[in-house]
DNA sequence: GACTACCTGTAGCAACTGCTACATTTCGTT
DNA sequence: AACGAAATGTAGCAGTTGCTACAGGTAGTC
């Protein structure tokens, strides 16, 4: 079945799928290789080192995330920032985003520790998200750029609360947004 | 120097200090033991297993965090929610909180993965923080509970942006808070 | 066919992982 | 002083970690 030659480009999707399901921090070469239909030997060959693998993987995941955002059904414009944030939270809570969010918090943790690759990936994903948020603000928003940032803070905060099992805190907070 | 008998209570502070500096996810028994002046053998003896250690450590860190919050100098009440959030962000950015925040994102990641111990620790820390936030809202706030939640979302979101190296995004977002 | 560049499997190494068996010391109690 | 429980040191085990040396295979080009 897996008889064609592999390359980083053919490996990355399978590796990303494995990482989305099992996490990135604890991923070691042999399980990753098995999931991608190769050997640890070949992963090192293609990516030079595990650091190289992780860096490539983070870039790939950031790209996947941007594309996933673009494909998420565009809601018709919301009337207020509050409503906008609530809709975006609902989208972020959709099951298809759950693996991304699990991975997202790992990436945030890595970035907080100062790792450059994690930080670059996180910044890329956040930039996509900010742009997407800005595009979904109410069309009459007085300051879309600042509004998108405020909404992003609130939505990300809510998603964090979700991760902690405190979803209601996020909902109550968003309900208190002006609008 | 370290000739007295050890117990979980005497070990936990040193273990927590090590974890605050070096992270929790990658902490293994031998380095932890060395930092606490013991052996891996004794860590297992006192905490039964590494899971037991981590659970105890997470509880301890949550307690430390509550106490650290109580000791953070209480600002005089802010005039608006926005000003309140901005002050709280400034406090969260103080150097003394940096190790806590690094660890915090690790805990969030662990909680997002569904680990019960991480989730409990995170919820405890978040509860402390919500109460503290509520106590620092403007005294004339119409709905302190909801307000504290909104401020928490915004401040946590800003701190996340800080972790990603996007501090300005947090600042711009907070500036757009009503008030 | 020969040459070359890329790709891959096998085997293994040194370090580290959590944990344990066994022996010994330390201490409070009697 | 004697006893039992709690605490500790030494040594090691089985499994995993990232990575490598070596030997081949596989393709395209001349």
From TrEMBL, chains A, B:
One Pfam family per UniProt: TetR_N
Domain HTH tetR-type as annotated: residue spans: 5-65
SUPFAM superfamilies: Homeodomain-like (SSF46689)
Key word 4Fe-4S present: no
DNA-binding segment(s): 28-47
PROSITE patterns: HTH_TETR_2 (PS50977)
Domain of life according to the entry: Bacteria
Keywords of this entry: DNA-binding, Transcription, Transcription regulation
PANTHER family, sorted: HTH-TYPE TRANSCRIPTIONAL REGULATOR BETI, HTH-TYPE TRANSCRIPTIONAL REGULATOR RUTR
Protein known as: TetR/AcrR family transcriptional regulator
Naturally occurring in which organism (per UniProt): Qipengyuania polymorpha
